[in-house]
Amino acid sequence: MKSKNTGNVLKGIAAAPGIAIGKALLFSKEIVEVDDSEIVDVKEAIKNLDEALAKSQKELNKIFNLAIDKLGEKRAAIFEAQLMILNDPVVRGNIVERIKKEKKNPEFIVDSEISKYQSLMLASGEEYLKERSHDIDDIKNRIIRNLRKKRWESKIEKGMVVVARTITPADTLLLTRAATKAYVTEVGGLTSHAAIVARSLNIPAVVGILEASSKIKQGDNLIVDGFHGKVIVNPDNQQLEFYRKKLEDLNRYGAELLKLKNLPSVTLDGKEIKITANLDLPNEIEVALNNGAEGIGLVRTEQIFDIAEAFPDEDEQFETYKNLAEKIYPQQIIVRAFDIGGDKVLPVDLKEPNPFLGWRGIRLLLDNPKIFKTQIKAILRANIHRNIKFMLPMVASVKEITRTRVLIEEAKSELEQSGVKFNECLKLGIMIEVPSAAVLSGMLAEYVDFISIGTNDLIQYLLAVDRGNEMISDLYQEFHPSVIKTITHIIEESKSKKVSASMCGEMAADPIAIPLLVGLGLDSISVAPSALLNAKKIIRSIRFDEVKQLAAECLQMETENEIKNKLTEFYNGLKINLMEDS
Ligand code: PEP
Ligand code: MG
User: Fold this and answer.
1) Active-site residues: which are they?
2) pLDDT tens digit string along 259-270?
3) What is the CATH superfamily name and number for domain 9-27+156-236?
4) 164, 218, 279, 314: most buried, per Cβ within 10 A?
């Protein structure tokens, strides 16, 4: 493993933007040691057990309600599942039986019984189930803590920077109540629960700092730079000064940005660039609206529904899409078909040697027409106001589009036969995120109504660099000459076919990249709701004729360094200067 850390600066992955300065709270789940000592009073032990179960249930109910409030009902279902285990009479029955029979400390029996579930999940080899097994740890420790009549929530001081190996969704929510300033974790990528929640709640987060818990001590002063994925441990005066100023600027800048909400997204010389929002959580639509989104450019349906539990049925999907479409009306909303596989959880038990090159996105959907058609029908029905568009992920060939069109027609006639109301007209688009699709973009454009460039995947496939692997993260280069040449090709090809092209990958929200993208001819971008106003600010600070020239120069350059330096220099010249590195 290459070490990327120098001095007191630890480098990780920038998971949620923002800057925080605060004291470290090393958040580790105490490893609960239990002994198997004999007990004399079985009745008393069972009474204690029931009290502990009731208390745990009360606590989890509280977390569940908080989750509904903060994350929406779909995601809160994770906690509902935990509650179900807690309420399961079989679980209690087994524990009580063993207390009576073995006459052992109830803590020991609880530990051993609930660990059985965990072992099964861990042994499954399924990433999703492994992750869920930590949640089971949560329940187990909660019951044992309550058997000991201990409280732990009171230990969490307010306004700290939480440093942990990993954070469960329950922790993230509880810590939000403690006004947590930032998150730093050892494991997890951009798509981890903690990262998604942090982004939605606007809390800076840096993940993937492998040595975080060993290099950071309880109470250390920390600076978390969620823009650059950096954590500074016990900063010196100069570093503190630099970031205090930055934080002040950021607060001032945030207030300034809000004033842009209703202003047009247009360059100084009059070119309009449409900015839409990407949605990972249903509640984010409010943030998108508050930040003046001109529509929704990407709904990650696999995230909205947390399909790892089970696929939502047609009615449930219909309700969700309809609600989102109504909220954003009269603007448009692009709903993307389930993008399952790769680093995203599969709801089926499947081990692939190379999941990123495997059964992913459109491939999996076309092999499962029932799942695919259910989603298509829900969208056709929800499109009451004609403002929903449908987008396909991971497309690599024309055939995938034509096969989808056949399924759409089948879905329509099935709905018609059953007398269900739906809208005939559904615009179909594709993500361009596979090199073959990029090469063929002009040809593919003939078959669709719009195109959206998914740079997160396009870069990984083009450069053969895993987007989630921190060992090679320096090779994952947005500004690799091949990347910008490919983007140019896609834009030109789609324009020649009069098909609109947008970009919804993370690159579209990168302040350094925005002038280049506008210069390359992109006239629409889709970014996280929290990045919307910043993108608008940049667009309103540039001239199209200048960035066109900038883009032309970048296209002549041979290394990513040259391009990056050029773009950084240009960005600094705009005097927005907010996210510039130290
Ligand atoms: C992308 O690949 O750029 C994209 C937007 O899709 P996702 O991040 O959901 O894979
Ligand atoms: Mg993608």
Assistant:
1) 193, 504
2) 999 999 999 999
3) Phosphohistidine domain (3.50.30.10)
4) 279
